[in-house]
Amino acid sequence: MTSPDLNPIDGDDPWDRVVVALAAYVVVLLLGTGAYRLLGLGWLDAFYQTLITVSTVGYGEVGAEITPAYRVVSSLLILVGVGIGLYAIGQVFGALMEGRLTDHVGKSRLRKVIEQTRNHVVVCGWGQVGRAIASRLASSGERVVVIDRNPEVLEDAGILAVIGEATDDTVLREAGIDRARSLVVALDGESDNLFVTLSGRALNPALFIVTRAVGPASAPKLELAGADRVVNPHEIGAGRMSSFVLEPNVADFLGETMSDQHFEVRLGELEVGPDVDLVGRPLTESGVLKETGLTLLAVRRTDGTFTHQRDPRCVPEEGDVLIVLGTAEEHDAARQWLDERAR
Known about the structure:
By secondary structure, the protein is of the alpha/beta class. The chain folds into three domains: about 15-115, Helix Hairpins (Orthogonal Bundle), CATH 1.10.287; about 120-230, Rossmann fold (3-Layer(aba) Sandwich); about 265-340, Alpha-Beta Plaits (2-Layer Sandwich). It contains eleven helices and ten strands. Strands 3-2-1-4-5-6 form a six-stranded parallel sheet, with helices on both faces. A four-stranded antiparallel sheet has the order 7-10-8-9. Helix content is about 50%, strand content about 15%. Strand 5, helix 7 and strand 6 (about 230) form a beta-alpha-beta unit. It is elongated, with a radius of gyration of 34 Å. The relative contact order is 0.07.
């Protein structure tokens, strides 16, 4: 995924100019102090005279005798020191104003990018789970919009984010929930996950919602609230750890096929559309597997059940999903095959 440029103003850091101006001001003070010291003043009097000269406070000169050289040094300090002092003050105020302007323009530009985003995934929560989900989706080429109350989420380069409470419908709308295709709810609180799931389903009935379950008892409630899939990270972690004990090589293979985009073969799914000649025919008679080289593992029925590919009843119907294994090129070829026959 190509990350959007969220830095609206290019150029050097304004605070670097402030440092340079203040450094020049210190140099003037040191040179002035040294010059007055050569004219016969003590170190403290020399510094004091330099300070009141460059600051133009209007106090009288320090010293018993005001010589022409004394007046020349004072004149140069007024011309140079006052100019540098005013420049330093201007840079400080400029840096403050520019920082506010950059922040305002950056948020405005970010808002416009989100407003133009379509068919994206909204991820609620930027904790450990939410961060891993967003990273995985982004690496797969998905456009992701994150919702979190912590402004630090904006520090991650390329992240489209809305700062606010995901339980607020206004914040969900700012994230483009009505234009999104999926919603991932990964908040820490069970009630918050339930509320956001309800809101997401109400704001976009066609949304595919995946919600994190904090405990086993919350899964049925989340499904009733409108979640298409409910995931309990603790149960998944336990299952994965036990599979490493029982069949570590199988677990490694499945893990790589599901998560490593650079792995040669991976699992995928193909939905059977209404106009495809797969409907009502045994898969052995269809060219989608023969021509592409994909390996069929199972068929998920519209009622949520799975039919193994060796089952004689494995005849796909409209809306079924084929679970297949193959290379990225084979998956692309199969999707193209289905698209061509659906026209």
